[in-house]
Amino acid sequence: SLYALGRDLWNVLLHQRTNISSDYVLIIQNIRLPRILLGIMVGASLSVAGTSFQALLRNPLADPYVLGVSSGAGLGAILALIVEPHVTLSPVFAALLTPLGAFLGAAATVTVVYLLGRREGQIDSTTLLLGGVITASFISAIIMFLMSTLTGNLRGLSFWLMGDLSTPLQRSVYWFLGIGFLVASGAIYTTASDLNLLLAGEKEAMHLGVDVPRVRLVVYIAASLLTGLAVSVSGAIGYVGLIVPHVMRLIFGSDHRTLLPTAAIGGAIAVVFADTLARTVVAPNELAVGAVTAVVGAPLFIYLLRRRLA
């Protein structure tokens, strides 16, 4: 029965005796559970980053993928992989080099896109969006150049860059991801009330006592960290930071004190569900998770863009 199956799975998680064969126990503990945990962290990170970008930039189309931040994180991760063989690091620090490179790439990209989208001291939504698309295209060209000219593992990264949760990770990386998510999302949540006021505009928020430069700095650094962490372990899974905040906003409203945690939960569910579809739709083959999210996200992005320009 389903109850018995659920009880056995629970016993597996608690490392207790179960009726499930030892082979299945190993599969659950070493493959399925780590992959689910990774999907939860990636989905929550991308959704919180997308929610904060949309609020700070006052643009419902903003998300790490559309703004090119995911591409920048991917480039940073690849550059870290190129550098790694040429430096001597302990295994723990070597495992953290890729997330660090992804964070730096994401931070640099969001800075460039922000500068491109700022006109006369104000954010121009259309210019910002175009700047993100152009930046993402330019970075993607650099990534393709690196992958086509360099040998080794870089040639096998094309599937990973489309979004993949199957890469085995060291335990230290999971700890780093978890701590990084808690710190970055916690930092963003401290600005939730300020983000509510920023929806009316930067000048209006300043008149109401919001320290806009501080909020902008906190959100940019924290959202870049979330994006970098997610991309460093899963590649570029697009549109999660666009779709989930809109759905949660329709259900729970625009108060970021509620929206941020619900977006994190919704993003975690969305990525785990997309990964399940990616593994089962064409089994025994496997789709890229980013391909599954793009099937839903791209049409929604077009719809939102047309509605905004109407």
Structure write-up:
Helix 2 crosses helix 11. With 310 residues, the chain is mostly helical. It has one domain (2-309): Orthogonal Bundle (ABC transporter involved in vitamin B12 uptake, BtuC). The model has no long low-confidence stretch (mean pLDDT 83). The protein is globular. 41% of the residues are buried. It has a two-stranded antiparallel sheet. The protein has helices spanning 2-13, 22-57, 69-83, 91-117, 125-149, 158-161, 171-189, 192-198, 202-207, 212-234, 240-252, 256-280, 289-309; strands at residues 118-119, 122-123.
- The neighbouring-strand order within the major sheet is 1-2
Secondary-structure element order, as H and E? Answer: HHHHEEHHHHHHHHH
CATH topology: ABC transporter involved in vitamin B12 uptake, BtuC
Q: What's the overall average pLDDT, rounded?
A: 83
CATH class: Mainly Alpha
End-to-end separation in angstroms reads 53 Å
Number of strands: 2
Largest sheet: 2 strands, antiparallel
Secondary structure layout:
Blueprint: H1 2-13, H2 22-57, H3 69-83, H4 91-117, E1 118-119, E2 122-123, H5 125-149, H6 158-161, H7 171-189, H8 192-198, H9 202-207, H10 212-234, H11 240-252, H12 256-280, H13 289-309
Antiparallel strand pairs: 1-2
Task: Describe this protein with a few key phrases.
single chain; about 300 residues; about 75% helix; ABC transporter involved in vitamin B12 uptake, BtuC; mainly alpha
Summarize the structure.
By secondary structure, this protein is mainly alpha-helical. The protein has helices spanning 2-13, 22-57, 69-83, 91-117, 125-149, 158-161, 171-189, 192-198, 202-207, 212-234, 240-252, 256-280, 289-309, and strands at 118-119, 122-123.
